[in-house]
Amino acid sequence: MNNQKVELLSPAGNLEKLKIAIKYGADAVYAGASHFSLRIRAGKEFTFETFKEGIDYAHARGKKVYATINGFPFNSQIELLKKHIATMAALKPDGFIVAAPGVVKLCREIAPEIDIHLSTQANVLNYLDAQVFWDMGVKRIVVAREISLKDVVEIKKHLPDMEIEIFVHGSMCFAYSGRCLVSAVQMGRVPNRGSCANDCRFEYTLYAANEDHSTLFRLEEEPGVGTYIFNSKDMNLASHIKEILDSGAVDSLKIEGRTKSPYYAAVTAKAYREAIDDYYAGKFEADKYQKELYTTKNRGFTDAYLIHRPFEKTDSQNHDYALSKGSYEVTGLVTQDEEHFLCKYKVYPNEDIEIFTPMGEELVECENEIGKIFKKDGIYYINFKKILTETNKELESVHSGNVNKIKLPGTLPYLTMFRVENIDGTIVE
Questions:
Q1: CA–CA separation, 277 and 252 (whole Å)
Q2: Would you state the torsion angle of the CA atoms of residues 89, 91, 97, 99, taken in this order, to the nearest 10 degrees?
Q3: What percent of the chain stands above pLDDT 70?
Q4: 105: which of 183, 230, 354, 357 is 20 to 30 A away, CA to CA?
């Protein structure tokens, strides 16, 4: 049994989401800068300067940052990659997440002081492959998402000093550990170099071919409707945290989603933080954490393949739609001065809006001419009598396009969120 408390690792698509993940319960975050990070959209959100700011923010709070360099470079990129590794090493992250064996070797040569974590893109499923990378100097392996918990235990038994990280939440790929070429063929966007177009989410039309008779028949579930034959549901293993931690083989629980919303970063960090803490406190409740997770935008959830093998699964695909749907919409985000918020959706006077806070925060109820903060049925709400900008201009309502800071009736913790129920649940993340 691993006696050290498991790490909760959250995605950080930009500096704001890095701070949110940490404030809402993550022990560590992973992020990248540039096209070597396997998430081009997220990588562009960070400059080297803001990445350093994020590292400093995390370290000041006793948290860690792992830098993603897990793309698959072409020969023409090797010299640029060498410079990138040196630049990232100078920022002093707590580890590099790397996929290609050659890049592992390069990181060891250029920045031997930085721990190497092997990306899930390397598809490690057994202790033989794990041993090869351990011998190369890899400290931690992010195992393939197709692995079983039984095989994770077996790897740990053979390599007890190697850290093992598993994905527990987030988008799934229809290809093996994300090694997909469909986007490259159809869209010219190479998935394994960070620019996947998510072609597996597209609607497809199916045809049945009979080569003997040279016939081709279109298959339709309904007239004019295709099917989402490749579209996986999202992974959700929150209800299985006890089984995972009981194994004693896992050192880090990883949440996918660098390109997802700040709200997703907050909710997933807080829900899994609670699940982990409850486990160590001896009060784990398998279904308790799902209520919050279902408020995030998702394509439906599956517990994937860690607990059950692929051939045992019948609920891993969503053939009906590809949109991410959730039950709540974020309306506001509290600013760093803790006296204002920025509107993220829409806010009207005289409506009760739920307050969603970072971990461990206690709120103070209050009421004045601006509004009130109050508790009802164990949940905190905010209600605005007036919507005032920081320059005291009164507005009838405020919407997401408005960049003005809006006054709060009392102070609230930085990065606190306001949320309202999303009645139709169809807003895309």
A1: 14
A2: -50
A3: 87
A4: 183
Query: For residue 376, what are its two tokens?
Result: 């009802």
Listed by start position, the domains of the chain span 7-175+232-312, 328-421
> Rounded distance, CA 93 to CA 409, Å?
39
Architecture in CATH of 328-421:
Beta Barrel (2.40)
Residue that the structure tokens 């920025």 belong to = 342
Instruction: Tell me the C-alpha distance between 95 and 58, whole Å.
Output: 13
Q: List the beta bridge partners of residue 406.
A: 341, 389
Q: Domain 7-175+232-312: what homologous superfamily?
A: Aldolase class I (3.20.20.70)
Q: Are 242 and 286 in contact (CB under 8 A)?
A: yes
The identity of residue 166, as a single letter, is I
* CA proximity to 166, closest of 248, 238, 252, 98: 252
Tokens of 326: 């959730």
Quote the CA–CA distance of 351 and 318 in Å, as a whole number.
35
The residue ranges of DSSP E strands in 101-190, in sequence order, are: 116-118, 140-142, 163-170
In this prediction, residue 40 carries a pLDDT of 55
Q: 94-110: per-residue pLDDT in tens?
A: 999 999 999 999 999 99
Phi, psi dihedrals of residue 353, rounded to the nearest 5°: -120, 125
Strand-pairing partners, residue 379, are 376
pLDDT in tens, 276-325: 999 999 999 998 999 999 999 988 898 988 987 665 666 776 666 666 77
